[in-house]
Task: inverse folding
């Protein structure tokens, strides 16, 4: 298959290119948009790997929630990114150091699985091979059977969080005029129109 | 595709399901009917908790389910009944207060029911993940009810303080759990015990200490007690009554099950931590309460001290010790609810009074209330033949049986020091000149006070079945 490497290079190049543009572009809104592009292309890479669940989570959570939140913050707050970027060269050595450490760690992790390949299948719930079961089915089979209690308990925690947020912040304002459709529809000409007999030269 | 998985047995968590479904139905009912349904929902919530107590009392649904994440045994049954009683009485006691202070909100009883659900899950937790989820469900609901009187600055401050410190404690707990998982490879209690059979590593002990620190926060044991007086003082009084009762019992049950169920092979390690926390709590509870003038702060220090006494029994680590802790918790629940029934009745001209001096001359204005409160205070001080004496007697007995003489001696000294501030309130009630009358006591509060008073005075009559039940429950842990 020639198509798979082709798509791999397409997605990879676009990811790296848009990641560079995130830090290079002058307009912060463009940065966030390039970030979204990078997320989409990484999702494509995940699909090529057979990890479609991660790909969907990436799009739903990172693009749908996180990046849009960034966009809101960038557009709402007046952050002067040009000024922030003033000391770019000054911070370059520290940034490079952090980058190198991160790279070394990534290599160590990857090297670990290469050195000891038997570790790959030794989790509490090892992932079945991709050709036997799609990983969404694998996660579902685990989440809704073995961990169903935890899943439901987490749901209750989120429910309490939602109730709490509403209880502590929602205020019903007095005197706000709201539309009441049923009251509007129920009106008849008798209740809506008042017929007034006007005397000549008197006014109402 | 996989074959259909069989549904795990749901029988052991019947009561939890009842509370979860009940809370959600009540929530829907409240949302659609609005604020005016608050009294109805309060009534139904109390009935729901009462039904749960009955179900626990008559059903026989012991068992392990969800791959060992949830356990129902006589210990869980005993502690769940206590917790449900604490929550139910706390909701019932809030009715008059909510009406007078105009914060009748239908979410309040629902949040208490959800917190109670979290407590039941904590008591039944047999896995680190279910422990954490139960704890978080309970804590989150408690943060909200602490701040539920949101127009009061003190209430919101209490809620925020509790939330920030609680989040910190959760972080510490999770860190400990992750260390335990890292050094044993397991989260289930039984599996952790099996993994510890080959001996322990130092990393596990660090994890154990972090777990105990996170849990000590929840029972407000020294040195993680700082939030207690502020939160007790700031939260609305019925919420304080709730905080002092049910969550303490559930967290104590959780600690007992963790140390006995999961860390039994390293008993010597956790014993030191528990003994230190017990001593520090008893001493601080006794000395720091002396200078208090606000009765809610005083009760906060009193509860810190009492948790210390209860931990003495746990430090013994024996079946008799656990039995002692459970008897202690029964008596603590009765005394706390009775004392808070009195505090909630301290209203003058439609205003809460929280000053201890306001109780002056209560024996002349409301002799019966004064008598009951005096009995409860004598019992809190541990004076025989009242209930509080037996509570302390059993835990100290267990400590001495295990040779923990220092712990027992310090406990007795702290108990004597603590007696001072309880007796001071009795003195104010009986020998000081009255400076005004309280508003008449609402019926539900006098009922709680009466029952509590009868229990405390006549404990010897009820003692035998309670001690036997606690013994059977404690035996199921070993």
Result:
């Amino acid at each position: 298959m020639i198509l798979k490497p082709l798509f791999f290079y397409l997605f990879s190049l676009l990811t790296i290119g848009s990641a560079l543009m995130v830090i290079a572009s002058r307009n912060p809104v463009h940065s966030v948009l390039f970030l979204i592009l990078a997320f989409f292309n990484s999702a494509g890479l995940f699909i090529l790997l057979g990890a479609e669940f991660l790909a969907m989570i990436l799009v739903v959570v990172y693009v749908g929630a996180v990046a849009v939140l960034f966009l809101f913050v960038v557009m709402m707050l007046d952050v002067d990114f040009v000024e922030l970027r003033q000391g770019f060269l000054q911070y370059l050595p520290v940034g490079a150091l952090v980058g190198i450490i991160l790279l070394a760690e990534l290599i160590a992790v990857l090297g670990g699985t290469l050195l000891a390949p038997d570790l790959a299948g030794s989790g509490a719930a090892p992932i079945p091979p991709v050709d036997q079961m799609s990983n969404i089915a694998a996660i579902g089979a685990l989440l809704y059977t073995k961990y169903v209690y935890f899943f439901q308990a987490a749901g209750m925690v989120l429910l309490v969080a939602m109730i709490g947020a509403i209880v502590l912040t929602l205020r019903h304002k007095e005197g706000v005029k709201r539309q009441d459709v049923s009251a509007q529809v129920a009106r008849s000409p008798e209740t809506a129109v008042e017929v007034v007999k006007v005397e000549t030269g008197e006014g109402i | 595709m996989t074959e259909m998985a069989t549904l795990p047995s749901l029988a052991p968590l019947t009561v939890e399901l009842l509370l979860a479904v009940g809370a959600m139905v009540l929530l829907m009912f409240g949302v659609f009917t609005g604020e005016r349904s608050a009294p109805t929902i309060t009534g139904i919530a109390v009935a729901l908790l009462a039904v749960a107590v009955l179900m626990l009392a008559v059903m026989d649904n012991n068992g392990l389910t969800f791959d060992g994440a949830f356990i129902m045994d006589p210990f869980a049954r005993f502690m769940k009944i206590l917790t449900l009683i604490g929550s139910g009485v706390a909701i019932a006691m809030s009715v008059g207060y909510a009406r007078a202070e105009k914060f009748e909100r239908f979410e309040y009883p629902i949040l208490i029911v959800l917190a109670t659900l979290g407590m039941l899950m904590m008591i039944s937790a047999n896995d680190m993940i279910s422990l954490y989820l139960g704890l978080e469900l309970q804590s989150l609901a408690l943060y909200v009810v602490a701040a539920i009187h949101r127009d009061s600055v003190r209430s919101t401050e209490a809620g925020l303080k509790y939330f920030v410190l609680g989040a910190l404690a959760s972080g510490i707990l999770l860190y400990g759990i992750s260390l335990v998982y890292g050094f044993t490879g397991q989260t289930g209690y039984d599996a952790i015990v099996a993994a510890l059979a080959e001996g322990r590593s130092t990393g596990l002990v660090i994890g154990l200490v972090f777990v105990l620190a996170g849990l000590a926060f929840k029972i407000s044991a020294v040195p993680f007690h700082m939030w207690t007086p502020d939160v007790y003082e700031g939260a609305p009084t019925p919420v304080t009554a709730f905080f002092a009762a049910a969550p303490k019992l559930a967290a104590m049950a959780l600690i007992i099950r963790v140390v006995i169920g999961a860390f039994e092979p390293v008993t010597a390690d956790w014993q030191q931590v528990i003994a230190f926390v017990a001593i520090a709590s008893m001493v601080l509870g006794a000395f720091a309460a002396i200078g208090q003038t606000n009765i809610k702060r005083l009760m906060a220090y009193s509860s810190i001290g009492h948790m210390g006494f209860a931990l003495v029994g746990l430090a013994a680590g024996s079946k008799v010790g656990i039995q002692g802790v459970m008897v202690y918790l029964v008596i603590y629940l009765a005394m706390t609810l009775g004392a808070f029934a009195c505090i909630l009745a301290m209203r003058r001209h439609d205003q809460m009074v929280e000053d201890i001096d306001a109780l002056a001359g209560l024996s002349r204005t409301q002799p019966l209330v004064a008598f009951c409160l005096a009995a409860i205070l004598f019992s809190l001080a541990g004076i025989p033949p009242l209930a509080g004496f037996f509570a302390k007697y059993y835990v100290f007995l267990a400590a001495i049986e295990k040779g923990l003489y220092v712990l027992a001696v310090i406990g007795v000294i702290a108990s004597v020091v603590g007696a001072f501030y309880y007796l001071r309130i009795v003195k104010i009630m009986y020998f000081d000149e009255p400076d005004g009358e309280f508003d008449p006591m609402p019926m539900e509060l006098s009922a709680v006070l009466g029952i509590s008073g009868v229990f405390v005075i006549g404990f010897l009559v009820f003692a035998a079945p309670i001690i036997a039940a606690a013994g059977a429950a404690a035996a199921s842990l070993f």
User: Anything to note?
Assistant: The mean pLDDT of chain B is 91. The beta strands of chain B are 63-65, 70-72, 347-348, 351-352.
